[in-house]
Automatic annotation (TrEMBL):
The keyword Manganese does not apply. Transmembrane segments: none annotated. The keyword Protease does not apply. This is HTH-type transcriptional regulator DegA. Residues 11-65 form the HTH lacI-type domain. InterPro entries: HTH_LacI, LacI/GalR-like_sensor, Lambda_DNA-bd_dom_sf, Peripla_BP_I. Pfam families: LacI, Peripla_BP_3. Keywords: DNA-binding, Transcription, Transcription regulation. CDD domains: HTH_LacI, PBP1_LacI_sugar_binding-like.
Length: 329
């Protein structure tokens, strides 16, 4: 239908009213099941709302300001401080707009993610987050709703997109290790269904640049996961003199374990993480890392929601990581 608002634009009561040929007060009465409207008109309004993909926000209706915008922020794991920092950036940006953010934790579970997506449509006006589901599935659950995906490249055409590019940062980290005489540099990678991460590909490319061999062990994304993976790695390759990890949480566990096994950090064993989190300053020695501006990621996501609500498809945003040298390398 030619009267349907363009994809990505927030569909309003006025859009439904225009398409159904009634006043927006009539649409409000129909959607709220008021009695002052005849049955055929009510059905026409409901059919039109369904066709256009209009989704009233339960949260917004319950707030003092009826025009307030609510955003659902979907993250895989609140216990991972990376996502907490991104959420803090999004919350700060939303406050500046007087918007409301509702945080959903999917616990890195695909079924929970689907369940969250099923709920989102009737609760918020836009969705931001980290998803494992393919684009068509997300599109099906969020038809017409503004969506911003973070950290993916296979993003559906109507969605906003934020990419994290750590290639140069990882290359700088490996170059630092090589320049300081490290030659046996391993990686603890995120174990995701047996597939190597893109961060592993950056590490492997950087190692090839310096003519160095690669060593990889999978690790769960936790301090305990880092400890277990570091123990396994050093048992298999006791001559390693440095480790690069998928994220800072794994790196902290790796550093604890390396020291338990008698390695001096950084004197004879260097540790570099990825994310550049504030928690890295709370360990001794402070953790070197490939740093992402996490607050900026959250702020960009909210800015892209604003563009989508205005009917503008935002350009792909890329946040580039840099090497942050602290005491562990």
């Amino acid at each position: 239908m030619t009267d349907r608002p363009q994809p990505g634009k927030r569909i309003t009561i006025r859009d439904v009213a225009k398409s159904a040929g009634v006043s927006y007060q009539t649409v409000s009465r129909a959607l709220n099941d008021k009695g002052e409207i005849d049955t055929s008109t009510k059905q026409r309004v409901l059919d039109t709302a369904r066709r256009l993909g209009y989704r009233p926000s339960r949260f917004a209706r319950g707030l003092v300001r009826q025009d307030s915008t609510s955003v659902g922020l979907v993250i895989p794991n609140l216990l991972n401080p990376y996502f907490t920092e991104v959420a803090a950036g999004a919350l700060a940006a939303a406050r500046r707009r007087d918007w409301h953010v509702v945080v959903y934790d999917t616990a890195e579970d695909e079924e929970q993610e689907l369940s969250t997506l099923a709920v989102l449509g009737s609760q918020v006006d836009a969705v931001v987050g980290y998803f494992s589901q393919p684009g068509p599935v997300i599109d099906q659950y969020t038809s017409g709703m503004p969506v911003v995906q973070i950290g993916r490249t296979d993003v559906a055409g109507r969605f906003g997109e934020i990419r994290v590019d750590g290639e140069q940062g990882v290359h700088a980290a490996i170059a630092h290790l090589a320049a300081s005489g490290r030659r046996r540099i391993g990686m603890l990678d995120h174990d995701h269904h047996g597939e190597a991460s893109v961060r592993y590909s950056w590490y492997a490319d950087a190692m090839r640049e310096h003519g160095l061999p690669t060593f990889v062990t999978p690790a769960a994304q936790s301090i305990e996961g880092g400890q277990r993976a570091m123990a396994a790695m050093l048992e298999k390759h006791p001559d390693l003199d440095a480790i690069f990890t998928y994220n800072d949480v794994i790196a902290i566990g790796a550093m604890f374990q390396a020291r338990l096994l008698g390695r001096r950090v950084p004197a004879d064993f260097a540790v570099i993480g990825f994310d550049g989190l504030a928690i890295g300053t709370m360990v001794e020695p402070p953790l070197s890392s490939v740093r992402i501006d996490t607050r900026r990621v959250g702020a960009i996501a909210i800015d892209q929601v604003g563009q989508l609500l205005d009917g503008v498809k935002p350009e792909v945003a890329t946040v580039r990581a840099t090497f942050l040298l602290r005491g562990s390398a």
